[in-house]
Amino acid sequence: MSVNPMVYEAQFFGFTPQTCMLRIYIAFQDYLFETMLVVEAVMLKKLEGIPGCKVSPSQIRKCTEKFLVFMKEHFDKLFAKMEEMLLQLVLNIPKNVLLPEDRVQEQYPYSEEEFQALQDELQQLQQQYRAEVAMEQALRTELEEQKIVKAELEKILQCFDGLESICREQGVGNFKESFALLTQNCKKLQDVLKDVEKKSEKMKQHDQL
């Protein structure tokens, strides 16, 4: 079998010429094997009708196998010549023939350097696209987080509004001022608590002495 890849022919035919030749070879070979089996069966049937014939089926099989080897050797030689002729004259696209889908290359030729530059530009654009997609995903994630935070803040504001309404109903002054005063008082209580804890610690140390 030919080792020439024949890529252009494969593009035109939709299959490699070598694959076509291989299938033809297998088909011929299978037909040859089937023919030998038919010949063997006919010989056995003819010999059965001859009185006193001492030729056994195993002897017929050995003769059939030898004849098959002989035929296969000649078939391989003939097929090699047929393959060479078909690959050169039938399944071969001449070098000066251009396929219709490749005519655009004739109108707009480019060098290997230009092709490599296009490849580099394409790769750069792909990287930029992936980066933009990742950035868009990050922005969407941040937007979702902001929506969650906004919802929580709205809940807190609703809670404050409810507290302010309750304060007004109970005759309490401005809720914001009351809340600020409450915060200051809590801080003072914390300072007093810390001072008490310090004095208590000193008294314990004095008792231990």
Helix-strand blueprint:
Layout: H1 7-13, H2 17-48, H3 57-89, H4 103-107, H5 112-169, H6 175-208
Give structural notes.
The chain is mainly α. It is 81% helix and 0% strand. It has three domains: 7-97, no CATH class; 127-172; 174-208. It has six helices and no strands. Helix 2 runs antiparallel to helix 3 (57-89). It is elongated. The termini are far apart.
List keywords for this structure.
209 residues, elongated, 6 helices, single chain, 3 domains, mainly alpha
Low-confidence runs of at least 5 consecutive residues = none
What percentage of residues falls in helices of 4 or more residues?
Answer: over 70%
Helical region count? 6
Question: Largest sheet, described in full?
Answer: none
Secondary-structure element order, as H and E?
A: HHHHHH
Average residue-wise pLDDT: 80
Question: Whole-Å distance between the termini?
Answer: 108 Å
Strand elements, count: 0
| Gross morphology | elongated
Proportion of residues in β-strands: under 5%
Radius of gyration: 48 Å
**Sheet/helix structural class:** mainly alpha
The total number of structural domains is 3
